[in-house]
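explain this chain.
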Amino acid sequence: MEVVNVANEGGDWEAVIRWDVYEEDAKRAIDESPSRKYLSPPIKVKELMWRIALRCKNKEEIPTLALHLERMESENTMWSVCENAEVAVINHEDNEKTISGE
C-alpha cells in the first residue's frame, strides 16, 4: 500500500492518497493526470485502486472528501473512490469545488 500526501498550492484542501499497487499499466493514468506533479514516487500498477481522503484545512468545511482524477483511457471517465462520505469534484484548472452528498 502506497501513501502519498498531496497539497493544492494556494487552495484550501490537502489530500492523502492511498492505493493498492499491482503491476504495470495505470502508471500512464498517473502520468497523464492533471495532478501528476503532486504524485510521487512513480509506480507501476496494472489496476489502480484510488483511496483518497481530502482533509479540509478549514475545519468548518466537510472533513472527508473524494478527489476525482481523470483516467487516461477516457476523457469522460473519472477516478472516484468515496465510501460513506461527501464528494467533492475538483476542477483542476481553476480549483472550483462542487460538493454533493449521498
